[in-house]
Amino acid sequence: xxxxxxxxxxxxxxxxxxxxxxxxxxxxxxxxxxxxxxxxxxxxxxxxxxxxxxxxxxxxxxxxxxxxxxxxxxxxxxxxxxxxxxxxxxxxxxxxxxxxxxxxxxxxxxxxxxxxxxxxxxxxxxxxxxxxxxxxxxxxxxxxxxxxxxxxxxxxxxxxxxxxxxxxxxxxxxxxxxxxxxxxxxxxxxxxxxxxxxxxxxxxxxxxxxxxxxxxxxxxxxxxxxxxxxxxxxxxxxxxxxxxxxxxxxxxxxxxxxxxxxxxxxxxxxxxxxxxxxxxxxxxxxxxxxxxxxxxxxxxxxxxxxxxxxxxxxxxxxxxxxxxxxxxxxxxxxxxxxxxxxxxxxxxxxxxxxxxxxxxxxxxxxxxxxxxxxxxxxxxxxxxxxxxxxxxxxxxxxxxxxxxxxxxxxxxxxxxxxxxxxxxxxxxxxxxxxxxxxxxxxxxxxxxxxxxxxxxxxxxxxxxxxxxxxxxxxxxxxxxxxxxxxxxxxxxxxxxxxxxxxxxxxxxxxxxxxxxxxxxxxxxxxxxxxxxxxxx
Length: 536
Hints:
Rossmann fold; Nucleotidyltransferase, domain 5; 17 helices; elongated; alpha/beta
């Protein structure tokens, strides 16, 4: 803003703005100082270079400002108070952005919920109020909006994408982005990211640039934070900087080494995420990220019916709920048996229909679409849970599709296969590498959200419609195969279970709680079924 520079008497860089007592007057650790310099392409000292190599793991330093920054710190590392808030305030006051007539220019800071957004907003509000120089740029400060004398607004939002649409955004931030909903849910991290980037379109051209900071302590290997980490960490990306650092590196003055050591001894998995900034699987995660990623057919969105080989058996399943924010989903898979006897499941089709705000999807049109899709693959039987209404069943019957409630045989008796059972049975396929799924980020996110709850499997966020249809189709494809029995796919699976003490049916045969069901069939404590690996 041209009018501001004479008042400040000289150009002010991000370091001066953050540390000088006339402005924010903050104390920075050496690692925080190095990161701020790197974000703005400033010259690095020898000490800064050490942190650049350690935290960015990049050999070359571009010396130019970045447009996207992922600040992945251990907890209490100062990502909000020393990086995100100072950068957003600097861009708002010193960025040189001036609204055109009738234009709304907003710098949004989005947090995972309403409470967290208020905390971040209060931090920036207090920073301005405590600086005699900076508070002169404030026109008014309300509960969730700071309006500057230039007309630019700094706003705090809970995780929402709709409220951000329509604004010009010269800078924006997502705080604790790893705790946002993942893609496939309403107002997911990807939705919010897209809304912010859309508002930055006018600024990211030519020599101008908008600054987008995503800051968080990592959680599971999902979402936009992990995606950015995979794509750009340690890579020569001229636009995005991914900075990963433990708590003790970023803020050694305020983080106790003794406390970190105690937490590492108490719960190593959780502590490595919280203090070492490592992405890791949740202890309760049903499927590992590696098993899910191994199953994804990269770049494959659908397998046409003409590509289904002779002899392959195709199975379709749906999640017919479609109420509220739930989606109605369809998944089709094929089961192939190799000459070695190994069986492999491949996903062919994934469909999803979601109610939009104030408008439900056309049930008749959706049913027509499902019937047409299934008939192309030569299938007239559709598996779905027993909560499907009689109207849904009749609608499919009128189109020549039989809606079947899924069952499997356990101990010689038919047992209803609910969604938890479907997950347990399909889980064997993922862990043994005997399933290939379509490259659908929403389905992958739902699979990652599955967690164990005692003997049951469910999604932590209750959004699992795509995963449910996929796993039910896969489970029923194997259950319907005559050989081998359901639960055993491909080579014998031992999984560290001792089957040498066979005993009578019903007896627990090992310390892991594996029960012999008879006929060489065993059930693990988790509910998974296995054949005796000796083939007896």
